[in-house]
Specification:
Strand content: under 5%
Shape: globular
Number of helices: 22
Radius of gyration: 26 Å
Order of helices and strands: HHHHHHHHHHHHHHHHHEHEHEEHEHEH
Number of strands: 6
Structural class: mainly alpha
Strand order of the largest sheet: 3-2-1-4-5-6
Distance between the termini: 68 Å
Largest sheet: 6 strands, parallel
Length: 486
């Protein structure tokens, strides 16, 4: 939960806007409601059905962020939306565990409400203290500690442990304390450095958590839960993505964006198991519920991981049946794309405004070339616009995006993106649109260069080879001048 809190950057939450909140809350409500009905229909008691339904709502942030990062999609539009509603889920699980793990949960109704009010007051005071630390103390302290990476790591562990202890002393829980510790560091510039160094420690400790859970499982009781686990797994694998697609389609996003984001909620998380284990410790549900949720977790995590890895192939197969999840005019996604939309008369479009693409963009602007950059990182686009650079938001892999650009009159379309599959998809989209101008694309090895040349690209850009050739010429010219002087 400390690492989860580190991802809860206030700037990210604000920029994601209503879509993350609406999708996250909508998915929570849908899964709890229908999960409860399914559990009740399977013969569970109302309380057990409720616990199981709530457990099914939580998706594994650890797995999803890892898979999206490996696919370089964490900064894509669907990746950012997915991270947004995963944060909503993480907040929900923290609140649920807080309400259940406090001593007030076992009290009478009036006493429970009174104690809950006192607890809320403590949270407000603690929140005010954290706000002061975030604003005035932590940035200065971390700046000093960051001179030593080992000291920064030790501080992070000590900070999380201290907050966990404070949370327990104040009557919250260790989990909430750890979450708030991470949250207090989330808006600092050292968040990524801390998170990257804690991942191995988190995964190592998580191993013992699952070993402990596995040792407590009663294999004899699991056998009777297999039919229920299969039904609930199908519900999570299909129902959760469908509701996300429906909500995002209604809010004005394209079916492709909704589909790719929806696949990220097609599993339950390790917190689902923690939640059920907490219910068992409180005496609300029997131990067999832990076996049921564990089986659902094993099935959904295994299947959904491959669904995310092969998400683009799955979309290509399912696209003909997904029109129901897209408005005739996906206004919200078009608004993002068309805000700062390129004007007529642009000579060069550059897809990918990273280090190579940004340099190319700046060089062409200095030569007074009419150029427009396209990038799929909203934060980067916002930063470029503040600096007055002509960059618009867009995803090169989206076959519909190029249609929104006035690309017919352009003389060159340049892709600085390194992935061969993305470049080929963009090339196919441009040809389908009828673009007949010049196309330049980037290749980082000879095989990709040969594939792009065979596909009909006008010019293949090889940044590393070109840079080496330029450096060799510069050195050779310098040596020749030295020989002339001598």
């Amino acid at each position: 939960l400390f690492v989860v809190g580190l991802r809860l950057d206030l700037h990210l939450v604000r920029n994601l806007g209503p879509v993350a909140l609406a999708t996250g809350l909508g998915q929570l409500a849908f899964t709890i409601f229908f999960g409860y009905l399914i559990g009740f229909a399977l013969g569970m008691t109302p309380l057990k059905a409720f616990y199981v339904a709530v457990a099914l709502t939580f998706s594994s942030t650890i797995i999803i962020v890892k898979l999206l990062s490996d696919k370089h999609e964490i900064d894509s539009l669907h990746g950012r939306i997915a991270v947004g509603f995963l944060i909503v889920q993480d907040i929900a699980v923290v609140l649920a565990m807080l309400l259940l793990s406090t001593p007030t949960a076992a009290a009478g109704a009036m006493e429970w409400l009174n104690n809950l009010g006192a607890l809320a007051l403590k949270i407000l005071l603690l929140g005010a203290g954290i706000a002061v630390l975030m604003r005035y103390v932590l940035p200065r302290v971390l700046h000093l500690l960051a001179r030593s990476q080992e000291l920064l790591l030790v501080f992070a562990v000590a900070w999380g442990t201290s907050f966990a202890a404070v949370g327990e002393v104040l009557g919250f829980s260790k989990e909430l304390g750890g979450f708030l510790a991470g949250f207090s560091l989330a808006s600092t510039s050292y968040r990524e450095a801390i998170a990257s160094r804690l991942v191995s420690l988190r995964d190592f400790l998580l191993l013992f958590f699952f070993i402990d859970l596995g040792a407590k499982l009663d294999l004899a009781s699991i056998g009777g839960e297999v039919p229920s686990a299969v039904i609930l797994s199908v519900f999570v694998l299909i129902g959760n993505p469908l509701i996300v697609m429906a909500i995002m389609g209604y809010m004005g996003y394209r079916k492709r964006t909704g589909f790719l984001a929806g696949l990220t909620v097609a599993q339950i998380s390790e917190f689902s198991i923690i939640f059920i284990a907490l219910g068992i410790s409180l005496g609300h549900v029997e131990p067999a519920a832990l076996g049921l949720v564990t089986l659902v977790g094993l099935v959904t995590i295994a299947v959904s991981s491959y669904m995310i890895i092969y998400s683009h192939r799955l979309y290509a197969l399912c696209e003909p049946w997904l029109g129901l999840f897209e408005r005739r005019r996906p206004h919200r996604e078009l608004l993002v794309e068309l805000s700062g939309r390129a004007r007529k008369g642009v000579d060069v479009f550059i897809f990918g405004a990273g280090r190579y693409g940004r340099r190319l963009l700046l060089q062409l602007l200095q030569k007074e070339v009419r150029v427009m950059g396209v990038d799929f990182d909203p934060e980067a686009v916002k930063s470029y616009r503040k600096r007055g650079l002509p960059v618009v938001f867009g995803d090169a892999e989206d076959p519909h995006f190029s249609e929104s650009l006035p690309i017919d009159g352009a003389r060159w379309v340049v892709s600085t993106l390194p992935e061969l599959a993305v470049n080929l998809a963009l090339l196919k989209s441009l040809r389908a649109q009828g673009y007949l101008g010049n196309i330049a694309m980037t290749a980082h090895d000879d095989n990709d260069a040969a594939a792009l040349e065979q596909a009909g690209v006008t010019r293949v850009l090889t940044p590393f080879s070109d840079a080496a050739d330029h450096a060799a010429r510069m050195i050779d010219e310098s040596l020749a001048n030295d020989r002339k002087l001598s």
